[in-house]
# Entry
Amino acid sequence: MNTTVRIGNRLVGDGQPTYIVAEVGINHNGDLGIAKSLIGIARKCGVDAVKFQKRTPELCVPLEQRDRMRETPWGYITYLDYRYKVEFNEEQYREIDRTCREVGIPWFVSVWDEPSVDMMEKFDLPCYKVPSALLTNKGLLEHARRTGRPILLSTGMSTMEQIQAAVKLIGQDNLIVFQATSSYPCDVNELNLHVIPTLRRTLAVPVGYSGHEVGLIPTVVAVALGACMVERHITLDRALWGSDQAASIEPQGLERLVRYIRVSEQALGDGVKRVYESEMPSLRRLRRISDF
# Structure
């Protein structure tokens, strides 16, 4: 099994601390100020990286959805126009890059199409995420792999056969596969966290968890089940406008999540049964008979 992957200056995988990703995604609603605030919050809370999403709207929005009208903070506009409103351009991503470097936190993106990969190649990103919706897109998988950067592959909406086909195409080196369920927010009955050890056994690659549930407990349990990398959407306020806000974590929740994960890592230990020095007083006081 390929047990570790290098993400920037960190090894991620077996025997390593959980790599925690705060996904800003599109929760900035096209506002660079909100994006910068969320970057600062993520850094303060102690996560390992922040993640955004990069799309080319005219390629990612299906033809039948482009002219559909919807209510937005920018008025009653088409879905295609809305997608442009929440999409950062290269100049804005350069500002994000500067901000992340200033506060000292790595960043990367989910890439939704090949031109987005090409644009992001102008930055020195530690990896790329391929979102669940694109797991079956052979062209994008191959294009992202040709960059030589580690690939994080999310598996929502996908069968095991589709996942195995994608892994075969990409190759197991520098790959982390994520258990995910693509509903926002996701019902706890559909998180299926036991898929994490199943993916580890079946694919022989490190496995992460991309959570869209309400609350923190399932993400911590995912770590206990072997997730080496976890990702949660973050927001300033879950009541804000946007499709991902309700499945996101507010600043106080993010701070708690990081703390819970780090305490859980300590509690899990190394699996080797031993008698601790702290137990010796109890042993001497309580164990009266020792036949073996």
Notes: The mean pLDDT is 96.
